[in-house]
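User: Okay, second chain of the day. Same drill as before: sequence in, structure tokens out.
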Amino acid sequence: MITAVLCTSALPLAASPAFAQDAVSTPAPTPGATETPAPTDTPTPTETPDAPTPQPTQDPEPAPTGTPTPGETSPAETPAPDQTPQETPQPDAAIARIAGTSGNAGAHWPLAITEINGDNDGADTYEFLEVVNTTDQPIDLDAAGIRFRYHTSQWNTGTVQPLIHLDGEDDAPAIIPAGGVAVLWMNYAEGDARRSLTKDQFRAFYGMQDTDVPIIRFGPQGGFANSGNRGFSITDAGGTTLMRAWVPADDGDGSTPWNAQFGVPDRTDSVDARILAHDVTGATAAPTPGVITTEQVTSRLIKPTDPSSVGPLLQITEVAPDTANVAGSDAYEYIELYNASDAPIDFGDYVLSYLSTDNDLTDPKALSSSLWPAGPGEPTIEPGATLVLWIQNPAVVSAGLTVADFNTAFGSDLTLGESILTIQSGGMANGGSRGLQLMTKSGHVISRAFYFDDAQTTSSTAIQYAWNPGDPAAAWKPADPSGVTQTMLGLAAPTPGTVTEAQVAPTSVAYPAPGSAPKLVDLTGGSELPDSGNVELGFDITDDVLVLA
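Assistant: Same drill. Structure tokens below.
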């Protein structure tokens, strides 16, 4: 049974004048003084999540020979090798350097399908499948027994398309470097004139600048279908599907997609790639062989729901109290929140508090607290998604820094009002014992995170947290790890908006189902209300689940 007494003066809204102030005090504790962070050197943030690597299986069984699917491109349509190169927009250098390890996919999908180009300009000569190694170790496709299957219905067994090593190309074994991208070029039946085309011609056709991207022939499928459904899957030596990507026959506009861009799944129990863009004209999905984006290898890591899972629905997973400076003050301090539940959560029902604590390493207690309303807007946090709260001190505001600057500093891709909000405040202390507390607007504490000394606040790292991870190597554990206080895992490179496997549980917490209707009692004018001249209305609300606001 949850009970809350609410008054009209209980909490400020983000749109109220209080939001423009540095800090808003809670009624009970006395607010601490505005923190003035000490100047620090400018760091160079780098996202470097760890990713395990699959172990190759030695001496795999010979791959079955694929049979060309009827109805595909006929060998009789073989073009001349001097086909006109396709006008492909060239990515800038920053995008070209994106690696498969730049996201968080490696723990679940060591190989990912990121692009299918099934109908190039002119005759179908340079159709390809793009595959990314999301791990930090090279993968030998032959030694690991990796198979690529072409499917014409969702999902039939498909036909295996073995790798093709032509004499003189010296490309065996076929290895995708750590974090690397490989382009699998569909070659046709043995004897087809298209096999006389060279890899240099392929690179020239698409204007590929990066010669480190391996081009690997595979086949003997008679080309990709230009109409109808089709897809590819990747399986390991034991036949387990690692990833599959499906291109529908119609994109909704009456056209058949010829290029599709994919991202890794958002759910950890799925192997179905997300289709990000596809069309027939190239306007929204121009072919980019060998080039990926961080989005394509980043998952929301939505966990399967386990009815027995427990834990806070919203959790503080990362805090950066000390960052690069602007005008002598920290420019990019932030707090990261993670939705650990299986349902969307309206952040409008919650508010953050900044705590000064007594430095008790066993059970820290707040000496004072300040409310930190965030805005603009009250976004919904999807299951497995994050919300970043950027602390903007007066120096940040005066400098006119924007979310674009924040994204540049950390290599993130956050959107104001959706995945990142701002808090107008003097900022977090770079030393001393402090804490962050997330609670409902009715005052129910959801999640807390603490830090204690200068060594835990550096300008090049953030502090990462997890709820009751059971990690014996954790930097600090609360007296009750199964309560609302997060365990401090340690310091790591800042990754606002992205969580690691160590920070989140393997399953989602089931969002509480609605019970009976809440009970509302009007206390206006009664003796139960605080003796305060600014209280006009008061209510007692009782609910069997939780009173949010």
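DSSP finds four helices and 33 strands in the chain.

User: Thanks, on to the next one.
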